[in-house]
C-alpha cells in the first residue's frame, strides 16, 4: 500500500467513524387500532431517530409469532387485554423487560411475573347510574347483587372479554363459591338479556329500561365528545366511584412485551420506556380516554372527566389465570341465557 493510498484509507475510515450511525428500527406487532397508536409512534421516531415498523393485526398475533419461530422479526408486542398478553407470556414467546425505569414507573401488580409484560395504560370498569333516578355517588361491585336493583341492571354479555376479566378479578379476590353466588344474584337483577355493547347500556339508561349498568371508562369519554345521539346517552348517566369491597377499582390494560427472539432488543426496551414517559403517556392515554400508568401524569383527559383512579392491587397476572374458571362459572349459572 502506498503512503497516498494509506492516507486516503485512513481519511475514509475517519469519515465513517464521524458520520451519524444509520437509523435504528424496531418491529412492533400490535392489535391496537392504528389511529390510537400512530401519534405515539411518530413522536418516538421524531424524538429518538428510531423507526417503528408497525404490523397491525386484528387477530392471531400470538399465533403469527409462534409460526415465525426463531426467525420472527417481532421486537415488541402491544395488545389491549391482560388475558391476551398473559397468554403470550404463557406460550413462551416473551422475555423479561429489564429496565429500571419500568420497575420505578409501573406498580408490580400491573406487570407480569418476571416482568414478562408491562402495563402502558389502564381502563377501569365502573358502575354508571341514571343521573335523574339514582342519587348515590359511590358503590362496591358487591352491591350489584343487591335485590334493590332487580329488573334495573344492564350489562353486556358475561362472556365478553371485558366482563370475563372483571369476573376473573372477582374470582381471584373471593373464590369460586362466592363468585358463583354473585353471578346468580347479578343475573337475577338484569333488566334484559345480557348483550350489546358498553355504550348500549347508557342508551338503555336514557330510555328507562335500566337504572344501573357497568361500563368501561373510555366509552364514557368517547360519548362525552360525541356529536350524535350518543351525547344524549352520556348526559343521562352518572359515573359512580366504584371499588371492590375493601379494595380498589378493577382495571384492564393495554400492555407491551418484548418478543422472545427480538432481533432489536435494545430498541424494544427504548420503545417501551418511551411509551411510559409523560409525553407519550399523555398522547397515548388521551387518544382513547384511558388512564396513564405513569403517576406523574396528572392532567390526563380521563382524570379530568372522571377523577383519579385507584386500581385494585390484585395482580393482573392472577386475574388472567382465573379467566377460564370465570368463564365456566358464567356458563354454569346461565348468565347469558
Write the layout of secondary structure elements.
Layout: H1 3-18, E1 25-30, H2 34-48, E2 51-56, H3 61-68, E3 76-79, H4 82-90, E4 94-95, H5 100-105, E5 118-130, E6 138-140, E7 153-154, H6 161-174, H7 176-188, H8 198-207, E8 212-216, H9 217-224, H10 230-236, E9 237-239, E10 241-243, E11 251-259, H11 265-275, H12 278-286, E12 291-292, H13 301-306, H14 316-321, H15 323-332
Parallel strand pairs: 1-2, 1-3, 6-10, 7-8
Antiparallel strand pairs: 3-11, 4-11, 5-8, 5-9, 5-11, 5-12
Helix pairs in contact: 6-7, 6-15, 7-15, 8-10
Account of the 3D structure:
- Strands 1, 2, 3, 4, 5, 7, 8, 9, 11 and 12 form a ten-stranded mixed sheet that branches. Strands 6-10 form a two-stranded parallel sheet.
- The chain has helices spanning 3-18, 34-48, 61-68, 82-90, 100-105, 161-174, 176-188, 198-207, 217-224, 230-236, 265-275, 278-286, 301-306, 316-321, 323-332, and strands at residues 25-30, 51-56, 76-79, 94-95, 118-130, 138-140, 153-154, 212-216, 237-239, 241-243, 251-259, 291-292.
- It is globular and about 60 Å long.
- Strand 1 (25-30), helix 2 (34-48) and strand 2 (51-56) form a beta-alpha-beta unit.
- The protein is built from 15 helices and twelve strands.
- The protein is of the alpha/beta class.
- The longest helix has 16 residues, at 3-18.
